Amino acid sequence: MDPDSEIIFDFPPFLCLYKSGRVHRLIGTDYVDAGVDPATGVVSKDVLIDVGTGLSVRLYVCCPSAYTRRPVLFYCHGGAFVIESAFSPTYHAFLNNLVSRADVVAVSVEYRRAPEHPLPAAYDDAFAALRWVTSHASGGAEAWLAERGDFDRVFLAGDSAGANIAHNILVQARAEPLGVEIEGLALIHAYFWGRDAVGSEPTDPAFRQWLETTWGFVCGWSAGIEDPRLDPFRDEASLRELPCRRVLVSVAERDLFRERGKEYYERLTASGWAGEAELAETEGEDHVYFLSEPNCEKASAEKARLVAFLTRIS
């Protein structure tokens, strides 16, 4: 069989990997340019951070806006570590809307994706981008950050795989301090899993084996299901010593990862962590519904909750 047409790993509905090494992504491949968003007035631009790896970010600010310092939001997009982009129509629209409502300086990171770049590439890229952002606390070349960013109010956030990344780079900041304190972490439908079922999670062995296999795939078969990057409950200190002041955990009733999100909140609050945590659940909705149905009433409430989290004065 032609190696360019022989599938060696099928990861529906996201992609197919062929024997030749060719990757065919089935969804989440469209890109849009940065610029002024006519619907919100938010302006965005792209910044290349590392020529060698291609690491870049898309920055967002309200325009027109008073030149007062605003909270800094570092956002990690979802997509199972294999699809979507900081430059996709889905995330570009989401960030434009969020920035217009919260009036924050937002940074959406374009990290490398599996399988071409297995984990930890996405973690490495996200942490490098976060370090670049926080380096502007004492000035820097990027004026949108150096002149508009309030580095006493820095937030990490993400959805699905992006929430997993946000959690893990915050954990990394324990050992590799960023030079600023992180105000908050927002985990939206976070992609966490583990060997043993939690709460009402499915217990079917074949189903759980499939999730274990896909995790191996995105890691380049270098890690298993007990990896603490996937199962944060394997490392008690990762919760007890989480280096931020506030955490928002958002889950959806019909989401596969709902139980893990609730367990994250429960274990965080019981761990002795000194911060303030909030758990919010959206009834009757699936995983990241607010991206596929951005104009529905519940999506508006989801975004309003995140805006309140970002703009509250501690």
Automatic annotation (TrEMBL):
It comes from the Eukaryota. InterPro entries: AB_hydrolase_3, Carboxylest/Gibb_receptor, Lipase_GDXG_put_SER_AS. Residues 73-290 form the Alpha/beta hydrolase fold-3 domain. Pfam families: Abhydrolase_3 (PF07859). The active site is at S160. GO terms for molecular function: hydrolase activity. This is Alpha/beta hydrolase fold-3 domain-containing protein. The lineage of its organism: Eukaryota, Viridiplantae, Streptophyta, Embryophyta, Tracheophyta.
